[in-house]
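debug: dumping io for the single-chain case to check the tokenizer round-trip. Nothing else runs in this session.
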Amino acid sequence: MNPALIASLIALSIIGLIDSIYLSWHTIRKQPLICPINKQDCNIVVKSSYGKMFGIKNEILGVFYYVFAIILALVIFFNEIIWIRYVLFISAFFALAASAYLFYVQKYILKNYCFYCLISAIVNLLIFLNILVIL
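debug: decoded output
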């Protein structure tokens, strides 16, 4: 196993984790998000009815997913357990699918973007591509 691929997977997961924790922190403290994209209001996106899946806030799901991805990447690095790669692939696929759906919602339904949600979508795409190379 190429350690650089695992390192990049862990680095991407940490970036996603930081993004999700930042969103969660603002949600918990009930502080408005400041969006660096001109004329966009991240709060419209995050507080919309699309801000939850399965009754759980998307940013909380993100925290769990990125921690899960880090743990699995470390298991792959230290143990080379083949089936763990497929578990990671399946979870990355669903994370990417959720990000694609939420991007669609931002673009066509809400007609508003959340900078932090876009970061998460890009990170999920890069994690998925990284795992394809690992497989």
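debug: round-trip ok. The two ends are 10 Å apart (CA to CA).
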